[in-house]
Amino acid sequence: MNEKTSYFNALNRLFRDAFKVSYDLFKIMVPVIIAVKILQELDLIKYLAMPLGPVMNVVGLPGEMGLVWATALLNNIYSSIIVLLSLVKDVPITTAQATILGTMILVAHNLPIELKIAQKSGPRLIFQAISRLSSAFILGWFLNTVYSWFNLLQQPADILLTPKSENVLNNESLISWAANEVQNLFFIFLVILGLFFLLRTLEKLRIVDVINRILRPVLELMGIGPKASAITVIGNTLGIAFGGGLIIHEAKSGHIDKKDVFYSLTLMGLSHSLIEDTLLMIMIGGHLSGLLCARIGYSFIVVTLLVKLTKRLPAAFCDKFLWAEPK
User: What Rg do the C-alpha atoms of the chain give, in angstroms?
Assistant: First the structure.
């Protein structure tokens, strides 16, 4: 086989794997995207926001911010920012409040899609949902307690984005929405293709081995096997939605123990997309002390304790409630 044929075969495998992974991912995403759009069109998200009002008060936020978090829970961060910008004109918030809200959104957002991706990779959906929702509340309560006790970040939030004159979520035509979603899905395919190319290149150059060695001490300290380092890096940098296809692929490969997939995805659920999403929350006035430092520290502690706890639990219990083989 000559070199030209070898390159062609490698490129063909790259596109074939990217298409297969994208197809598996889109089977999850498309029905959820349509369902969420229906909820938006019927204006039902506000009803989910109603019971969140008291929760917002407990973490030191105005009750109106429940609509922002409800939008984030069902949709993406960008949608929740649009809602926030429409509210802050009448309901101003401090830097502390922006940090609390931003941190809660970062921990728990886009749950219909991200939980299905986690479930497809093996971890049980119900535990992942409870983990993310309860962690968002605990972190919000903790940050509010610290900021209030020490009178920190009480100045008005410095929001860098400009509020829209109209609510894009409600005024966007269905054709425009569909076109945007198709564009987003194509972009996700390109990201997956790029990830496969990068991963294959890193494997050829043995850089993956270097990354594994660097992360091994941290993962071992938490109790996560080193083979899960690749999907952990993907989730923590790109996020679960963008890296979801590759995460499912790696979980199905059989190279990673189902326990390590569970630990890795639990960690990702609490602290993923550390760069892009964190910057977005800074633009609405949040502070790194909560958005990044508290979130990473909390995630590390929770997953470390979870690893130690699951080692003491019966295997049958863990298989039923915590993890399973990838679907």
Answer: 21
The backbone torsions φ and ψ at residue 152, rounded to the nearest 5 degrees and listed phi first, read -100, 145
> Residue 227 above 80 pLDDT?
no
Kindly compute the dihedral angle of the four CA atoms of residues 137, 138, 139, 143, in this order, to the nearest 10 degrees. Answer: 100
Q: Model's pTM, two decimal places? A: 0.84
Dmax over CA atoms of the chain, in Å, equals 70
Alpha helices in the chain (DSSP H): 3-41, 45-49, 52-58, 65-74, 77-87, 95-107, 111-121, 125-149, 168-171, 174-204, 207-222, 229-238, 240-252, 258-270, 276-282, 288, 295-310, 315-321
| C-beta separation of 87 from 68 below 8 A | yes
Distance CA 252, CA 170 (A): 39
Phi, psi values for residue 130, rounded to 5°: -60, -40
Please give the average per-residue pLDDT across 15-34, as a whole number: 82
- Contact between 101 and 110 under an 8 Å Cβ cutoff? The reply is no
- For every residue of 175-202, DSSP letters joined together read HHHHHHHHHHHHHHHHHHHHHHHHHHHH
User: Which pLDDT does position 163 carry in this prediction?
Assistant: 55
Contacts for 6 with CB less than 8 Å, ≥ 6 apart: none
C-alpha span between 155 and 97 (Å, rounded) = 10
Q: What is the mean pLDDT of residues 51-57?
A: 93
Whether the CB-CB separation of 132 and 109 falls below 8 Å is answered with no
